[in-house]
Amino acid sequence: MLLLLALVGLFAAGCGSDSGQSALKQGVADFDEKNYPAAIAHFTRATKRITDSAPLYYHLGLAHLHQGEIESALAAFNAALELAPGHSEAKACLGQIAYLQNDAVKAQGYFEQALATASGDEAKARLLTSLALAEMARDRNDLARLYLLRAQQHNRRYAPAFYNLASLYRDKFNLREEALDQFELYVRLASKGDRHLEKAENLIKRLRDNIARTQAEEAEGQRRDPAAAARLLQEGARLNAAKQYPKAAKAFRDALAADPLTFSAAYGLAMTYKSQGLLAEALEAFRRAAQINPSHQESFLQAAELAFQLKRYAEAAKILDRAIARSPFNAASAELMARIRNAEARQPEARAYGEFYLSLLRPEQKSAAYEKWVRSLPVK
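Structure (tokenized):
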């Protein structure tokens, strides 16, 4: 379909001789049938007569690429760019070749150029995913994650973005449950012929088994008394409201001792510690609350903010990794991560998170001062 749409203008324009048009038409048919050697022969013959068509050279390059003929593909893609310097697809293919040749920096440059002139959400999602792979090859995992999230912003049904984000969470961030979520989304979106589908299904089964085993081990031998915990929780809430913080903290701790899975006791304890200015203790309590209820974004954000205030930047970032994986389009997480990376003197990542944060805001929510700060940070 892509080939036919790109070349239909040639047939309508009538450029070149009849023999050139005939060779072009036959090349299209051969390409659609995946007979790439024949397509190359016909496209090459067409170039002798049709000398001003970037799409023709682009598809000649694609046919060579399918045959693994890298040098010929490079020549064809560069010829397409000479005729049409803004040809996004040709630049993307040059980036793909550079990536396959393990030149991630060169690949990134081509992908960025292609993205600048790309049109359509699916094309942008594809290029953003390619940029993520280039960043992963350079072990720049923050930037890879943000490219994949941006790809999902552009096209919520672009399956490769979900597969690669799942792989990133599993292999680089050690986030098994979040990786499982992304793999499951990928399987729902992928076509039946997708070559990664079977692997993803096997990984889903393995991750589910590992997570279930870990949860069973954690629950083994854990004694719970929910009734006693509820009474102590109520007492802690009463004491906290009366600003009797030390006594409230003890009641919350006793509630957790009675039932270690009482989320409200962990969160109440954290807030009580915070009210007393006991930041390190509040941090640990917020972390425990987030562990009990991983869906509670506020616990993650509070813990990460306290770690940041204590200048425990690596710890703050690790807490936020899970928060972002759980709720990727939460603006507060992106803004805090930008501050953390800036404090670590990792300005390119700080800028990327700042830009992502701005993309999540409505126009009236944006601050000119914040935008100026983000633009002042280096890109690379």
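The chain is about 80% helix and 0% strand. The CA atoms of residues 115 and 127 lie 6 Å apart.
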